[in-house]
Amino acid sequence: MCELLGMSANVPTDICFSFTGFLHRGGGTGPHRDGWGIAFYEEGGYRDFRDPHPSVDSPIARLICDYPIKSHVVISHIRQANVGQVRLANTHPFTREMWGRPWCYAHNGQLEGWESLPLAFYRPIGDTDSEHAFCFLMGELRRRFDAPPQSREVMWGALHELCERLRRLGVFNLLLSDGEYLYTYCSTKLAHITRRAPFGKASLSDAELSVNFVEHTTPNDIVSVIATEPLTDNEDWIRMAPGELLVWKDGEIQARFNATGNFAVTAGFNSTS
Amino acid sequence: MCELLGMSANVPTDICFSFTGFLHRGGGTGPHRDGWGIAFYEEGGYRDFRDPHPSVDSPIARLICDYPIKSHVVISHIRQANVGQVRLANTHPFTREMWGRPWCYAHNGQLEGWESLPLAFYRPIGDTDSEHAFCFLMGELRRRFDAPPQSREVMWGALHELCERLRRLGVFNLLLSDGEYLYTYCSTKLAHITRRAPFGKASLSDAELSVNFVEHTTPNDIVSVIATEPLTDNEDWIRMAPGELLVWKDGEIQARFNATGNFAVTAGFNSTS
């Protein structure tokens, strides 16, 4: 199995602290030695750094820890290969352009019968179940909506329905973003924490590192971190329920779908903005 | 204007030497301070590193110089902005998936009336003439060929025709690749050199650095470098003619189209392989 890390924030924020703990699982405290990647959205642009080597040994991973890239949305992944060889083409996150936006995707889990998921518009470059499922997901959304739909809830409902379909094929924990929204879908394991004023201290579970967020934030900052397993040992992380889709923007949950298809919009969210 | 750098090789080869000279033009010996990027194809996979800051000051660029990534095909670009702000979304190279392959593109020049180039399948993420032209190019190829055509010459002919159309809108020097072939199209300025046994020494024009290729190669290596301006001052670079398209594979020219549409295939090339 792989591990996922995501971030949504209302101000450009670096992920150095969380990523430092996370990458220790890439061949250090964890067994995920088969590559890693991290994607950043910055001012409407997108870039990712991917390496098919263990993150603990990677000079590129060290650069990411030392060179704070400030972003509203981050998606990261460390891999323990099950389907597909250890090579760059199979290294998450994957990306495709849809509706003039760079969509980014990372998956934790394993699917059965994924080869028969129908594809439209997008084709996999590598040979993993994960990338095939991504191409299926994007192709289905694009087939249903040839432009970004006026009503976001309709698109989110379609996304939740597609995620539920993929969950029926096995384990499908997902991070997905178009740079504005971060979508997190839980099949078996995802946890999240939202940090806001008054900020406190946090210490990593996987490395000897603490941070006092008061020293790195302003009172209006809201930063949420989502990960397969909680990354800190002194904070209360919330575990998502199987079948739950959360829609994040600016560090806060904008909408929530549960396994029965129930939908809730958080107060103050303008559904047509 | 921007500057372009490309490489095609028959063995995985690092581009550290050429890139070291090239990046000095990014705010050092040259005026191209508005970002840079470099893309590598490795074992069917693709990754790029892009930064909207000057390459001479970039810790990511230093990493690329110090961390030899070995590749068959490389495309790099340093930018002096004309159309579109200095930001990540406008930083070359650009990439899109077509036919299950990651296509990569970098452009030097400026186009008139590019806004009316028709788009199909692909939409720009940023707001440059370059990315719009890329989306036009890819969309036109995909519209004509819904799968990789049996006859490569037919696709190359279509690509040359589209490049000629873009050249009529202004200046359009191009590097394009699908990871197997490297396409170089000259509108005003591109030069190339092919290095093979017996290898000699080379010294950079833009930085105090020399290399003795004998120490870094085997007798069967063939490595070609293509750049806006020659990067070394002691070798004979060949300048391309306006309207010329070269198709590179494994470090050698496989086919050549000139401005009048004449087409030549090099001896030994198997046109249907």
Describe the structure.
By secondary structure, chain A is α+β, with helices and mostly antiparallel strands. The first copy, chain A, contains four helices and 16 strands. Chain A has helices spanning 16-24, 59-66, 129-144, 152-167; strands at 3-13, 36-42, 45-51, 71-78, 94-98, 101-108, 173-177, 182-186, 191-195, 201-203, 210-212, 223-227, 238-239, 244-249, 252-257, 263-265. In chain A, the strands form three sheets. A seven-stranded antiparallel beta sheet of chain A has the order 3-2-4-1-12-9-13, with helices on one face. In chain A, strands 5-6-7-8-14-15-16 form a seven-stranded antiparallel beta sheet, covered by helices on one side. A two-stranded antiparallel ribbon of chain A has the order 10-11. In chain A, α1 runs antiparallel to α2 (59-66) and α3 runs antiparallel to α4. The longest helix of chain A has 16 residues, at 129-144. The radius of gyration of chain A is 17 Å and the shape is globular. The model of chain A has no long low-confidence stretch (mean pLDDT 91). Chain A binds chain B through residues 42-50, 52, 59-60, 63, 66-67, 87-91, 96-97, 99-102, 121-126, and chain B through 42-50, 52, 59-60, 63, 66-67, 87-91, 96-97, 99-102, 121-126.
